[in-house]
Write a structure and sequence with these properties.
- With about 280 residues, this protein is mainly beta.
- The chain folds into three domains: about 90 residues, Elongation Factor Tu (Ef-tu), domain 3 (Beta Barrel); about 110 residues, Rossmann fold, CATH 3.40.50; about 70 residues, no CATH class.
- About 10% of the residues lie in helices and about 30% in strands.
- The chain contains four helices and 16 strands.
- It has a seven-stranded antiparallel sheet.
- It is globular and about 50 Å long.
- It binds flavin-adenine dinucleotide and FE2/S2 (inorganic) cluster (FES).
- FE2/S2 (inorganic) cluster binds next to loops.
- Its cofactor is FAD; [2Fe-2S] cluster.
- This is Dihydroorotate dehydrogenase electron transfer subunit.
- It comes from Hydrogenibacillus schlegelii.
- Pfam families: DHODB_Fe-S_bind.
C-alpha cells in the first residue's frame, strides 16, 4: 500500500508563510527515499487534485515524515490550517528520488538548494552523512525570514548560507563563485528553474554526476495522465518524461532546462515543447 491515513503530530510556522508539518504514517506506508514526494489530498470538496510536497525528513523509528511548504494558494493554505491530530490522506508515488549510490563513503557530495528547494536536501544530507559521505551544502533564500533547515543541515553538513539581501549569511546567490573547479564527486540540486539553468550552464560538459529535483504541475501523481511531462534528452533523442513517475530527480545534463516551465505548468505559457536545442 502506498497510500494511507497519516496523522498530523506536529505543526509549526517556520518562516514567512512557511509551515512544517510532521505526519505519522501507518505501518503499511512505504519508507520514503530522499528526493521523493508525497501526494497529499487536501480537505474540501472543491479541491479534487492532490498536492505534491517533498519529503523534507523521515524518522524511521517513529515513522514520522516532515513536509516543509510555503502557503501559495488554497490547497497549501488548507493543509497549513489543519490541527495536530487531524488525519491526512497521503500517497507516496513510486518516484525516483536522489541516487545515493552516485557518491561513496569518504567522497564529497555538494548539495545546492534555493528557497523551498532546500526542503528535500535536509533528508538527503542526513542520508548521505549516515553513509559516511562528506556533505557540503549551499543554501539560498530571499531574506533571513525565509531561512529554514539550517540547524538540521549543520548537524550533518558544512553549510554555506546565502540571502539575496544579505540579511543572513553571505549576500548573493547559491551559484555565486561556483564553477567547474568546485571540489565534489557528485552534486544534487533543487530550486527554481533559473537556478537550475545557471547550474547547468556552469557545469556543461562536466563529467561528474549531477542530479536535479524538478517541480511540475501535477494531476494524478501516478504516471497516468501525463500532466507533468518535461523534455529529457536520452542519447540523441528528446523524450517527454513524467516528473511524478520518471522523476522528480533527473540527471541535470539530460534536462532540456530551457524548456522546463518556470511555473510548473505544462507549457508555462511559453510552449516549451517548441523550444529548440539544449541549453
Ligand atoms: C515533486 C514536487 C515537490 C514539491 N515539493 C514542495 C515542497 O517541499 N515545498 C513546497 O512549498 N512546495 C513544493 N512543491 C510545490 C507545491 O506542490 C505547490 O506549491 C502546491 O501544489 C500549490 O498548491 P496550492 O493549492 O496551494 O496552490 P495553487 O492555487 O494550485 O497555485 C498557487 C500558485 O502556485 C503555483 N503552483 C501550483 N502548483 C505548483 C507546482 N506543482 N509547481 C510549481 N508551482 C506550482 C501556481 O502556478 C500558482 O502560482 C512541490 C511540487 C512538486 C511537483
Ligand atoms: S501527474 Fe499524472 S502523469 Fe504525472
Amino acid at each position: 500500500m502506498r497510500t494511507g491515513a497519516a496523522r498530523i503530530v506536529g505543526r509549526r510556522a517556520i518562516g514567512r508563510s512557511i509551515v512544517e508539518l510532521a505526519l505519522a504514517v501507518p505501518p503499511a506506508f512505504p519508507e520514503p527515499r530522499p528526493g521523493q514526494f508525497v501526494h497529499v489530498r487536501v480537505p474540501g470538496d472543491a479541491l479534487v487534485l492532490r498536492r505534491p510536497l517533498s519529503v523534507a525528513d523521515w524518522d524511521e523509528r517513529e515513522r514520522v515524515l516532515r513536509l516543509i511548504f510555503r502557503v501559495v494558494g488554497e490547497g497549501t493554505a488548507r493543509l497549513a490550517a489543519l490541527p495536530v491530530g487531524a488525519a491526512v490522506d497521503a500517497f507516496l508515488p513510486p518516484s525516483t528520488g536522489f541516487p545515493l549510490s552516485a557518491v561513496r563513503a569518504g567522497e564529497t557530495a555538494l548539495l545546492v538548494g534555493g528557497g523551498l528547494g532546500v526542503a528535500p536536501l535536509i533528508f538527503l544530507a542526513r542520508a548521505l552523512h549516515a553513509r559516511g559521505v562528506r556533505v557540503k551544502a549551499r543554501i539560498g533564500f530571499a531574506c533571513a525570514e525565509d531561512v529554514f533547515g539550517l540547524r538540521r543541515l549543520r548537524a550533518v553538513a558544512d553549510v554555506e548560507l546565502y540571502t539575496d539581501d544579505g540579511s543572513a549569511g553571505a549576500k548573493g546567490r547559491v551559484t555565486d563563485g561556483l564553477g567547474p573547479e568546485a571540489a565534489f564527486h557528485a552534486a544534487f540540486v533543487c530550486g527554481p528553474v533559473p537556478m537550475l539553468r545557471a547550474f547547468q550552464r556552469m557545469f556543461r560538459g562536466d563529467g561528474r554526476p549531477i542530479y536535479a529535483a524538478l517541480e511540475a504541475r501535477m494531476a494524478c501523481g501516478a504516471g497516468a495522465c501525463r500532466a507533468c511531462v518535461v523534455p529529457v534528452a536520452e542519447g540523441s533523442a528528446l523524450r517527454h518524461r513524467r516528473v511524478c513517475r520518471d522523476g522528480p530527480v533527473f540527471a541535470l545534463a539530460s534536462l532540456h532546462v530551457a524548456g522546463v516551465p518556470e511555473d510548473g505548468s505544462p507549457d508555462g505559457g511559453r510552449g516549451w515543447a517548441d523550444g529548440g536545442g539544449f541549453v
